[in-house]
Amino acid sequence: MTGRELKDMYLGFFREQGHAVITGSSLIPQNDPTVLFTTAGMHPLVPYLLGEPHPAGRRLCDCQKCIRTGDIDQVGDISHLTFFEMLGNWSLGDYFKAEAIRWSFEFITSKRYLGFSPDRLSVTVFQGNANVPQDTESIGIWKQLGIPDARIHALPEDDNWWGPAGQTGPCGPDTEMFIDTGRAACGPACRPGCRCGKYFEIWNDVFMQYNKQVDGSYQPLAQHNVDTGMGVERTVAMLQGCSSVFETGMFRAVLEGIESMSGRRMTEHADTGRAFRVIADHVRSSVFILGDEQGVSPGNLGQGYVLRRLIRRAIRYAKQVGLQNGFTVPLAEQVINQFAAEYPELETNRQRVLTELKNEEERFEKTLDRGMAELDKVIGQLKAHQQARLGGRVAFRLYDTCGFPLEFTEEICAEHGITVDRAGFDEAFEKHRAVSKQSMDKAFKGGLADASDATTRLHTATHLLHKALQTVLGDHVHQKGSNITAERLRFDFSHPAKMTDEQVRTVETMVNAVIQRDLPVTMGMMTVEEARADGAMALFTAKYGEQVKVFTVGDYSKEVCGGPHVQRTGELGRFRILKEEASSAGVRRIRAVLEPAAPG
To answer: What is the pTM of this model?
Structure first.
């Protein structure tokens, strides 16, 4: 079964169970400062999981593009990816555990669908803690379906608990489904979740049934939700009898391209295989980020930094297997050709994708030249002091600040009879990763933007700003990203040149004029085609016939949006632009605030 066939089968199955098939969202979350990328299928649906009515109803399903870099160091093993597709079905206060688990079991084991033997299925459930009891309901349902006690594993919250979207909020236990690959167990403690490869996780059902309070206690939620996710690549690997996601047809063309250009076989050595897999994953991920409807460019901050890291990490591994400069473009062509039918934005943005990859490769070559110059200097100092060991912290500094791979440092030092303190490098790397993880945890905490009054006002202000920019600069202006906190808004938009001071003042004046008119902000429900026919801006790809929310600001603007808004523009106060600057090639950025309106 191919990935496309799996997706069609899954969505068809849940359509039969009364679910509306909705369109997946952009990889770049809009108006959400809490995440850099869409990290899970549920991410775009968090407002509805919290109780807001969804236009398509209470039963939904879709396929969502996702980027997840929290475990990037594990990419290259048999199952971890940075870009992946996630199938999901949701109940928004409708069905709960019994239906969700039974449908999961039916889809996995029925010969009409995936047809896995029930004997290959193992599951995990929440074992309970001091605040919440064991999920005995899920255990009972699995037993009724014929899964024996030996293949039902109760695990702690690190494994089977979905936390709230912040310090407080909806949360609950989950149950995960694993296919036994037939490999021998790695030891007596081997179980689902073990990294040895015996068990392959393909599906996770999350049951949001509690509301975490400020004091740390858990109260039952009035509305119980189900949020599930099935990884496309992992499931296809099991369906195709593969021991790795990289052995499936979803990666074959890219890996064959790497073999052809490098003149090496992926299977010739374990390190070669890992390098091939990292290159394939990172190039594929970069193509989807660059080709997204809201695609970003490589940079030093936020999404741009993640993208740059992926491209440069691919380049570092490419050098290990002998790939020459310019390898990213032909590999990217393979990815676009393979996925453009399902994701037409890749074809639409083909030239942008290829140009950005080519430019980033060239920039990184210069970075490597700088690293080489720095390393030559360090080696000279070591020889002058008759030292034959390069410190781990120095090696890490070369890696962190110059982007110089440790393997390069070791190879070059070896030519001069110098060893490298790898243990010291690893220690410095782990400290850096711990700090980075804390920072990323803060950035990724939750999945729902702050819905305070201050943030809501700034969100509405971005709509006014967007329309003003189009009026002043032209219809080519489109939102390319947005980050809103309770203190300020940051708005990225397409425009080829720096705005003049006069243009900035005109935009600011125009927004304030709309605020002073105290226009009503109203919401209506209509299909996508009706919204566009009515002149509404729609910044995403959606299926015709889908119901969407359209917010209208008096006679000023009309835009498709799912976020919170004020009722009248007069609530906003005074709009002030703090800065207009470059964000990336062809993209400008405005930072602005709302201040109290002047008296009288």
So the answer is: 0.73
